[in-house]
Amino acid sequence: MAVCARLCGVGQSRRCRRRQRNNLQDQGSDSEMDEEEEERIVGQRQSGVSVGVGGGGGPVSGAANAGLSDACEYGSGHMNRAGSGPPLPQSLAELPPELLVEIFSRLPGTALPVVALVCKKFRQILNTETIWRTRCVEEFGMKEDLRKMEAGGVSSRDLYVKLLHPYRHILGLWQPDIGPYGGLLNVVVDGLFIIGWMYLPPHDPRVEDPMRRRPLFRIHMWESKKATVECMYGHKGPHKGDIQTVKKDEFSTKCNQTDHHRMPGGRQEEFRTWLEEEWGRTLEEIFHEHMQELILMKFIYTSQYDNCLTYRRIYLPPAMPSALLQPGLFKGTYGSHGLEIVMLSFHGTCARATKLTGDPNVPAGQLTLDVDLSRPVVLPDLEQQRSIEELSRLVLGIHEEVEKEMEADHGSCSGSEQPGPSSITNPPEAQPFILPLGVMARNEVYPRTCRKCFYGTGLIAGHGFTSPERTPGLFVLFDEDRFGFIWLELKSFSLYSRLTDHLAHAHAPNIERFEAMLHNMQSWTS
After folding, report:
1. DSSP-based three-state secondary structure for 84
2. Which residues contact 183 (CB under 8 A, 6 or more apart)?
3. pTM for the complete prediction?
4. Could you give the domains of the chain?
């Protein structure tokens, strides 16, 4: 800060000012003693200080502290060299209060407690609501009229210090630990609340419908001067909850009034209500016996987590310059398991889809699709596309080549190579596409043209993720927001549609963090 002041011409270096001060005859000994005493006191207060908003800030360097003490070390202005006009400011402390408010408003909120330690004037100016209002908007994207909130008795400073800053570490994208089922949670600043929204796929099989979302918890300051955590689960409205930070990139929620989750009709009424919300139908409307078993199993399993949940941070895949399609989150059909959410990411010549929600066969966190973009598949004419034997011949021929290469190289699609223009960029014009006869599809309405097709493998397993194996299939790119996969062994087709919701605070700080997260996801749910 001191350096900025000197560059702007409102201050000088400490050494120059001290020489100038000693040479001036009008500086009395009393004022010198006061200034030296103030310098000594400020220096003592700042030495070894590590201050943050709400006690959570990081250490501040000695150079920064020295610069801040410079700002208030010399409080008396000096006349300009012409000897006329008002005195020129010699430090930050001599600037007009409105200018200091503007300067402090541009500092990160974590630095403001350190600024308050410099002198009484700075401490008083930091009580200005404009400063904290600006920090709430710039750091947390608040769009509400905070003046109305301040008129209601909650200051912008309290909002920042007691709510936004202490809970900033839980903002972003998370995967709940619900065994094989997983999930997708986005914690955002929503109005004057921090809300944890659980994102749910649309009802099966309407894969192109928008996502549904349900609040799991919220944090606010409406009823008191401190942040209040409330559980939103159940059917009796908000009730007492708690949030605990387990470790970095992990936190837990706990409900303190689980009786709010119970319904008068007991478990049967709870199951009927859950089924209507989860599947959009009654059990009588689901004729497939195996699907009924899967639904009942999911209800019993997930009900165990209605009072306490742990969440682990996840990130959206980084954008790629490829013209194939952009990475992101997609909802896809998985037979009797219904719709699930996957994360599509690119790694060199590979495209990989990782499950964010899962099922008892292939749990969340597993690599459901692995596509080799260096191995395009040229589809035959429509009449031959109707033959599952013809499609199998094309795909299995490539599969045998891949296995021979893996045996020779003792490797797999590592993603180390960069995608070539012939395989990824400049996709051709749309070509006709139709599913082979005998291939089951949850969606009878699917695109009848596609851009490109590639060889890939899909992960299948028995109940409880037993005997997992990768089976060959065909990855079909329809457009920027839709793709499909034909599982040859299962004679099944999955259609995927892009999740278009805006998910705040969800991008990885760098590619290394994203890759590490992706690697760890498999161990979370294995």
Report:
1. coil
2. 175, 176, 198, 199, 356, 357, 364
3. 0.78
4. 92-142 (1.20.1280), 167-310 (no CATH), 320-405+429-524 (2.40.128)
